[in-house]
Write a structure and sequence with these properties.
By secondary structure, this protein is an alpha+beta fold. The chain is built from five helices and six strands; from the N terminus they run αββαββαββαα. It folds into two domains: about 100 residues, Topoisomerase I, Chain A, domain 4, CATH 1.10.132.20; about 70 residues, Gyrase A, domain 2 (2-Layer Sandwich).
């Protein structure tokens, strides 16, 4: 019974880290990466549609993103979505593809990106702690219903704490790695 609670908590905490990785993939560093525009949504026939469903994104060189729309009528909408985003990028449309030159980040912009990374890491840690609270509550419920002993309850609670510590440390490690990437000139 406790193992079921632990497996569920571990699975949910893993998903929180996956979400953190996905969020940090969209944080701008000094070089081009297709993940920068993955989370971008484009207004397409009145519906917010993910950019990766409307166009192919490639990186022909380190500081250049090329967006090839599947349907040329979406060019303007894609351009507008990029300009509205907090990425701070200027798209160039040549009628065939949209090119985005990635300028080197200023020191001030790097610091802003690091703050964004810290915020994302903190959100992931909060999610992990919520999962911990739920798991400990489930273990307590099992003890209250006399399905496990008090010793098992304490052991289960400790296992949940150990699991939480492991995932929080992993979130910190992911954040530090992204921070290093952002601050790299």
């Amino acid at each position: 019974m406790i193992n079921d609670v632990l497996k569920d908590a571990e699975s949910r905490m893993g998903k929180a880290l996956d979400a953190l990785r996905r969020d940090l993939g969209g944080v701008r560093t000094g070089r081009a990466a297709p993940s920068m525009v993955d989370r971008l949504t484009v207004e397409y026939y009145g519906t917010a549609t993910p950019l990766n469903q409307l166009a192919g994104v490639s990186v022909p060189e380190a500081r250049l993103l090329v967006i090839q729309p599947y349907d040329r009528t979406t060019m303007g909408a894609i351009e507008k979505a990029i300009q509205k985003s907090e990425l701070g990028l200027n798209p160039n449309n040549d009628g065939q593809v949209i090119r985005i030159a990635i300028p080197p980040l200023t020191e001030e912009r790097r610091r802003q990106m690091v703050k964004l990374v810290h915020g994302n890491v903190e959100d992931a840690k909060v999610a992990i702690r919520h999962i911990r609270r739920d798991a400990i509550g489930q273990v307590r419920e099992l003890a209250d219903e006399r399905m496990i002993s008090e010793d098992d309850e304490r052991r289960g609670g400790q296992q949940v704490e150990d699991l939480t510590k492991r995932f929080v440390e992993e979130a910190d490690r992911i954040g530090k790695s992204k921070e290093t990437e952002v601050m790299e000139v």
